[in-house]
Amino acid sequence: MRITPEKVDELAALARLKFEGGEKEAIRADLEKILEMCEKLNEVDTTGVEPLIYMTENSNVLREDVVHQEITHEQALLNAPKKDSDFFRVPKVIDQNG
Amino acid sequence: MRSGTHSVSLPGIAQDSFHYPMNNTEFEAVIGLEIHVQLLTASKAFSSDSAEYGGLPNTQISAISLGHPGTLPRHNKSAVEMAVKMGLALHCDIRKYNSYSRKNYFYADLPKGYQITQFDTPLCNNGYVPIRLKDGTRKQIGLIRIHMEEDTGKSMHDQDLTDTLVDYNRAGTPLIEIVSEPEIRTGDEAYAFVTEIRRLVRYLGICDGNMEEGSLRCDANISVRPRGTTTFGTKVEVKNMNSISNVKRAIDFEIARQTELILSGGTVVGETRGFNALAGTTFSMRRKELVNDYRYFPEPDLPPLILTDQQIEAVKHLMPELPDALYARFTEQYGLSEYDAGVLVDDKHTALYYENLVRHTSNYKAAANWVSVAIRGYLNEQAMGMEDFSLQPEKIADIIHLIDKGVLSHSAAVQKLFPAMVQDPAVSAEEWVQKLNLVQNTDNDFIEKLADEVLASMPEKVAEYRNGKTGLLGLFVGEVMKLSKGKAEPRKTNEVIRRKLDA
């Protein structure tokens, strides 16, 4: 399957990534190779085989509605690249999703 | 939920044989609503951190709701139960085999990079919402689906100059999303629809229905088309309506805007618009040029949820009597008028109070009046809800008995006795009547004397009455009541005055 430069732009926008100059062609070629590899799977005849979603036969793994606070406010913020005493801080974003 | 953008083309241009109507009454709106309901669980949808509203920022969080790797979500039993309740209340088919999907998008308030939602197996399908408009018209609005999902965190864009601040307390709060068929035609119908949804979630106790705080949120998809056509016009999505009346205002505005736009030769653009409540207008937020590709795929971390008939039946038994059933019972069993029954079932606590009250009195009509007029009036004045009303129904029943026995007049009961009882319910109704000296006087001599006094003081009016202006009777009775300080029994007073005048 062929990946067009436009498709790269579209995917980059969805992933909030930016590819410039030679990077864009490199990722385009990589994506094509990845898809080629996946297309190999199409050679297997899967007629009548249900897609496998779950690795176990489990169902109904539910929990009781009980509050149990497992981490503190400080722990929550510990790994944040940018924060203040209350909030996670991220670069100013305008809503692009709904 | 609709696809396709059929813009309405304009008259005259290469369409000689077909003319779109030029009068805006000839356009109709096509409206579908999407309502997000935050479920009133104690903990989150897939983790055990608290889902309570209003906590200090980033204190109700967990490794799961913060989207740390290597964590496993587990679904909250109560969230499922509440979602099933809503589906049953809205006459939906409840799906037995449920799976979850990931809706992928990158945004700071969604730490996992995907929202867990039900994409292709919504818990509820079909169903409908019965609505009643102000003019009494009834209509059923069909539902496409109700599915379970989780809420995002909250971003604050205008608190800081350079950064967006994110609070993840809300992340992972259980939601249901109710999607209507595009069968709503006016702002009034939308108003009735959201009102009914809010009433039901409150009856079921699954959400507090607070649009200001965002526990109930409504988005509207609106398009217009010439009446009589069946294709859809280009739809516009309107967001940010934080009250039910704003939903109506935004829709009314948007219908007028789109209609005028088309009539003046413009084209409606598919976009998302916000609502400015101060101005009563909508404004463009973003164009829907690039359709967002959410790349849904099955959520492998959550095994399927399989419900049985017995489980669904068990949930049904946990549900309270719903407003429609109460309404039917109030009109049939208690003989209330449709209006009285409607007012009482409007709010769950009011309906419950009434039910408790009529256990202590068989004067159903008087009981309805007390609840919907005196008590609700008092609560409105105090800006309180029925759930905050502390006077026991037995006490109101006592008041009704005293009135029915003729001990005191209705007006004295409402104006004097009721406020006193609310102030100090420990004192019985009888004791208050004595204390406040409210016993009405049915003694003929007392009333005769006052009647003579009143009639003597108004010789002209008496002459007018005798010349046929019998409507003046009420004036004389009122004067006697006034002189008696509300203690003359009205029926008896009426009798006495009429006898004297007709003599």
Concise overview:
The complex is a heterodimer of chains A (98) and B (503). In chain A, 34% of the residues lie in helices and 6% in strands.
Please write out the topology:
The complex is a heterodimer of chains A (98) and B (503).
Chain A: H1 5-14, H2 22-39, E1 62-63, H3 73-77, E2 88-91
Chain B: E1 27-38, E2 75-76, H1 77-89, E3 93-94, E4 97-98, E5 101-104, E6 114-117, E7 124-125, E8 128-132, E9 138-150, E10 154-156, E11 163-167, E12 174-180, H2 187-204, E13 216-226, E14 236-239, H3 244-263, E15 271-276, E16 281-287, E17 297-298, E18 305-306, H4 309-318, H5 323-333, H6 338-345, H7 348-357, H8 364-382, H9 393-404, H10 410-423, H11 429-435, H12 444-457, H13 459-466, H14 473-483, H15 490-502
Parallel strand pairs in B: 14-15
Antiparallel strand pairs in B: 1-12, 1-13, 3-7, 4-18, 5-6, 5-17, 7-9, 8-9, 9-12, 10-11, 13-14, 15-16
Helix pairs in contact in B: 2-3, 5-6, 6-8, 7-8, 7-9, 9-10, 12-14, 12-15, 14-15
Describe the protein.
With 98 residues, chain A is mainly α. Chain A is built from three helices and two strands. The model of chain A has no long low-confidence stretch (mean pLDDT 89). Chain A has a domain at 5-42: Histone, subunit A (Orthogonal Bundle), CATH 1.10.20. In chain B, helix 6 packs across helix 8 (364-382) and helix 7 crosses helix 8 (364-382). The N and C termini of chain B lie far apart (77 Å). Chain B has helices at 77-89, 187-204, 244-263, 309-318, 323-333, 338-345, 348-357, 364-382, 393-404, 410-423, 429-435, 444-457, 459-466, 473-483, 490-502; strands at residues 27-38, 75-76, 93-94, 97-98, 101-104, 114-117, 124-125, 128-132, 138-150, 154-156, 163-167, 174-180, 216-226, 236-239, 271-276, 281-287, 297-298, 305-306. In chain B, the strands form four sheets. In chain B, strands 1, 3, 7, 8, 9, 12, 13, 14, 15 and 16 form a ten-stranded mixed β-sheet that branches. Chain B has a three-stranded antiparallel β-sheet with strand order 6-5-17, with no helix packed on it. Chain B has a two-stranded antiparallel ribbon with strand order 4-18. With 503 residues, chain B is α+β, with helices and mostly antiparallel strands.
